[in-house]
Amino acid sequence: MDMLHDYGIPTVIFSSTELHNADERGRLLTGYVSHRADLAAERRSNQSLEKLDMLGKKTATAQRIRITFPQLPGVFFGTGDLFSALTLAYLERDGPMPDLKKVFYKVQCTMQSVLRRTIKHAESLRADPNCPLPYSACYELRLIQSAMDILSPPECSSVTVMDV
Protein backbone atom coordinates (compact mmCIF):
# COMPACT_ATOMS: atom_id res chain seq x y z
CA MET A 1 0.00 0.00 0.00
CA ASP A 2 2.87 2.33 0.80
CA MET A 3 4.26 1.81 -2.70
CA LEU A 4 1.00 3.12 -4.15
CA HIS A 5 1.04 6.07 -1.73
CA ASP A 6 4.58 6.79 -2.95
CA TYR A 7 3.07 7.41 -6.40
CA GLY A 8 0.81 10.09 -4.89
CA ILE A 9 -2.33 7.98 -4.55
CA PRO A 10 -4.09 9.18 -1.37
CA THR A 11 -6.49 6.26 -0.84
CA VAL A 12 -5.69 2.61 -1.51
CA ILE A 13 -8.44 -0.01 -1.16
CA PHE A 14 -8.30 -3.78 -1.41
CA SER A 15 -12.02 -4.51 -1.38
CA SER A 16 -11.92 -8.22 -0.58
CA THR A 17 -9.23 -10.81 -0.06
CA GLU A 18 -9.39 -14.35 1.28
CA LEU A 19 -6.87 -13.89 4.08
CA HIS A 20 -9.05 -15.16 6.92
CA ASN A 21 -10.48 -18.66 6.96
CA ALA A 22 -13.63 -18.68 9.04
CA ASP A 23 -15.23 -17.94 12.36
CA GLU A 24 -18.75 -18.12 13.76
CA ARG A 25 -19.89 -15.97 10.81
CA GLY A 26 -18.69 -18.61 8.31
CA ARG A 27 -16.06 -18.07 5.60
CA LEU A 28 -14.68 -14.57 5.77
CA LEU A 29 -13.37 -12.01 3.35
CA THR A 30 -11.09 -9.18 4.42
CA GLY A 31 -10.73 -5.70 2.97
CA TYR A 32 -7.98 -3.20 3.66
CA VAL A 33 -8.00 0.59 3.31
CA SER A 34 -5.07 2.96 3.63
CA HIS A 35 -5.58 6.73 3.45
CA ARG A 36 -3.03 9.53 3.52
CA ALA A 37 -4.72 12.84 4.35
CA ASP A 38 -1.63 14.79 3.25
CA LEU A 39 -1.82 13.34 -0.27
CA ALA A 40 -5.57 13.95 -0.44
CA ALA A 41 -5.07 17.61 0.59
CA GLU A 42 -2.23 17.97 -1.89
CA ARG A 43 -4.39 16.59 -4.68
CA ARG A 44 -7.28 18.92 -3.78
CA SER A 45 -5.09 22.03 -3.62
CA ASN A 46 -2.63 21.11 -6.40
CA GLN A 47 0.30 22.04 -4.21
CA SER A 48 2.83 19.98 -2.37
CA LEU A 49 2.25 19.68 1.37
CA GLU A 50 4.84 16.98 1.93
CA LYS A 51 6.96 16.98 5.03
CA LEU A 52 10.54 15.79 4.68
CA ASP A 53 12.55 14.08 7.36
CA MET A 54 16.27 14.66 7.99
CA LEU A 55 17.18 12.38 5.06
CA GLY A 56 14.84 14.13 2.64
CA LYS A 57 12.21 11.38 2.65
CA LYS A 58 8.49 12.04 2.94
CA THR A 59 7.07 11.56 6.41
CA ALA A 60 3.39 10.96 6.77
CA THR A 61 1.24 8.47 8.56
CA ALA A 62 -1.46 6.59 6.75
CA GLN A 63 -4.71 5.77 8.48
CA ARG A 64 -5.26 2.05 7.93
CA ILE A 65 -8.26 -0.12 8.60
CA ARG A 66 -9.21 -3.76 8.12
CA ILE A 67 -12.76 -4.88 7.38
CA THR A 68 -13.90 -8.48 7.82
CA PHE A 69 -17.24 -9.74 6.60
CA PRO A 70 -18.91 -13.03 5.65
CA GLN A 71 -18.37 -14.47 2.20
CA LEU A 72 -21.87 -15.11 0.90
CA PRO A 73 -22.74 -17.99 -1.44
CA GLY A 74 -23.29 -17.16 -5.09
CA VAL A 75 -21.63 -15.63 -8.10
CA PHE A 76 -22.75 -12.02 -8.26
CA PHE A 77 -22.55 -9.54 -11.11
CA GLY A 78 -21.94 -5.85 -10.45
CA THR A 79 -20.48 -6.02 -6.95
CA GLY A 80 -17.34 -4.11 -7.90
CA ASP A 81 -19.38 -1.32 -9.46
CA LEU A 82 -21.65 -1.13 -6.41
CA PHE A 83 -18.69 -1.16 -4.01
CA SER A 84 -17.00 1.66 -5.95
CA ALA A 85 -20.16 3.76 -6.15
CA LEU A 86 -20.92 3.36 -2.44
CA THR A 87 -17.32 4.13 -1.50
CA LEU A 88 -17.22 7.31 -3.57
CA ALA A 89 -20.62 8.46 -2.30
CA TYR A 90 -19.82 7.89 1.39
CA LEU A 91 -16.30 9.37 1.13
CA GLU A 92 -17.69 12.45 -0.62
CA ARG A 93 -20.46 12.78 1.97
CA ASP A 94 -17.88 12.76 4.79
CA GLY A 95 -15.82 15.58 3.24
CA PRO A 96 -12.05 16.07 3.21
CA MET A 97 -11.41 14.22 6.50
CA PRO A 98 -13.54 11.06 6.25
CA ASP A 99 -13.99 8.69 9.15
CA LEU A 100 -12.77 5.61 7.28
CA LYS A 101 -14.09 3.14 9.82
CA LYS A 102 -17.59 4.62 9.59
CA VAL A 103 -17.47 4.93 5.79
CA PHE A 104 -16.39 1.34 5.15
CA TYR A 105 -18.70 -0.07 7.79
CA LYS A 106 -21.59 1.58 5.91
CA VAL A 107 -20.26 0.35 2.56
CA GLN A 108 -20.00 -3.26 3.73
CA CYS A 109 -23.32 -3.25 5.59
CA THR A 110 -24.99 -1.98 2.42
CA MET A 111 -23.19 -4.59 0.31
CA GLN A 112 -24.22 -7.38 2.69
CA SER A 113 -27.84 -6.23 2.60
CA VAL A 114 -27.98 -6.05 -1.21
CA LEU A 115 -26.27 -9.43 -1.58
CA ARG A 116 -28.55 -11.13 0.94
CA ARG A 117 -31.61 -9.76 -0.86
CA THR A 118 -30.15 -10.97 -4.16
CA ILE A 119 -29.51 -14.46 -2.74
CA LYS A 120 -33.06 -14.71 -1.42
CA HIS A 121 -34.45 -13.72 -4.83
CA ALA A 122 -32.10 -16.09 -6.69
CA GLU A 123 -33.07 -19.00 -4.45
CA SER A 124 -36.76 -18.38 -5.11
CA LEU A 125 -36.13 -18.27 -8.86
CA ARG A 126 -34.03 -21.43 -8.83
CA ALA A 127 -36.68 -23.26 -6.79
CA ASP A 128 -39.13 -22.75 -9.65
CA PRO A 129 -38.62 -25.59 -12.16
CA ASN A 130 -40.25 -23.45 -14.88
CA CYS A 131 -37.89 -20.51 -14.45
CA PRO A 132 -36.42 -19.77 -17.90
CA LEU A 133 -33.54 -17.63 -16.59
CA PRO A 134 -29.96 -18.88 -16.74
CA TYR A 135 -28.17 -19.31 -13.42
CA SER A 136 -26.18 -16.08 -13.84
CA ALA A 137 -29.30 -13.98 -14.42
CA CYS A 138 -30.67 -15.09 -11.06
CA TYR A 139 -27.75 -13.39 -9.28
CA GLU A 140 -27.96 -9.93 -10.82
CA LEU A 141 -27.96 -7.47 -7.95
CA ARG A 142 -31.35 -6.37 -6.64
CA LEU A 143 -30.44 -2.67 -6.64
CA ILE A 144 -33.90 -1.15 -7.13
CA GLN A 145 -35.34 -3.39 -4.45
CA SER A 146 -32.45 -2.36 -2.16
CA ALA A 147 -32.86 1.40 -2.64
CA MET A 148 -33.72 2.08 1.00
CA ASP A 149 -30.66 0.15 2.21
CA ILE A 150 -28.47 2.09 -0.21
CA LEU A 151 -29.89 5.44 0.92
CA SER A 152 -29.86 4.56 4.62
CA PRO A 153 -27.41 1.72 5.36
CA PRO A 154 -28.64 -0.83 7.88
CA GLU A 155 -26.63 -1.84 10.94
CA CYS A 156 -25.12 -5.30 10.67
CA SER A 157 -23.29 -7.30 13.29
CA SER A 158 -21.52 -9.48 10.71
CA VAL A 159 -19.16 -6.66 9.60
CA THR A 160 -16.11 -5.81 11.71
CA VAL A 161 -13.95 -2.73 11.11
CA MET A 162 -10.76 -2.04 13.05
CA ASP A 163 -7.65 0.09 12.89
CA VAL A 164 -4.52 -1.67 11.71
From TrEMBL:
The keyword Cell division does not apply. PANTHER family: PYRIDOXAL KINASE. It comes from Schistocephalus solidus. GO terms for biological process: pyridoxal 5'-phosphate salvage. GO terms for molecular function: ATP binding; pyridoxal kinase activity. Belongs to the pyridoxine kinase family. This is pyridoxal kinase. InterPro entries: PyrdxlKinase, Ribokinase-like.
